[in-house]
Amino acid sequence: MAPYEWQPLVTLVVGGALVLFLRGLAAGAGPGFWRVAAFLLGLALMYAVTQTRYDYYAQYVFFIHRLQHLVLHHVAAVLIALANPLPVLAAGTPAGLRERVIRPLWRTRPVQCVYRTLQFPPVAALVFVGLIYFWLIPSIHFDAMLSRDLYALMNWSMAVDGILFWWLALDPRAPGPGHYSVGFGKRCLMLAAVAFPQIVLGAYIVFADSD
Question: How far apart are CA 65 and CA 194, in angstroms?
Fold first, then answer.
């Protein structure tokens, strides 16, 4: 369970999220057992595939590496999105930090512009599938597997994009003014749109006649 190659940023983000979540639960922002379990399991999976000995095997065995991205981009991200942890994380964040730093930063135009662009359903679907294809381009994948920095960037991009996409698809809020949730029909179309390109890519890899 010890880190193969310790990445302080992963430890900071996962550990910080865990501390804030536990503080939020202690403050009374309890979302129910299953949502708590989903969030904790999602965090644990993300940590396990990036900071344990599993990461060593992911760097040397292709199918294990694909399972790593399955966890980062899909399984763990889905669990975290299903948990809807934002209210609990907000309750666990110190009031001064939340009101003086996070909230003003979140409301700035550049941050809102980037977020709204990434959460526009066609863009979200394109980026979700596009990242998978991009990192599997042979020349790019080869370089990423030999560069610690590119390898970390690849895994971070999969994890962050996975959380953003599944949060958009599984947002518990009904569509309405004041937030960026989309209609349920659009969500279904978005999920169908990302499914078929992944099936095609998976079939291409499975039936390839060379490495």
Answer: 21
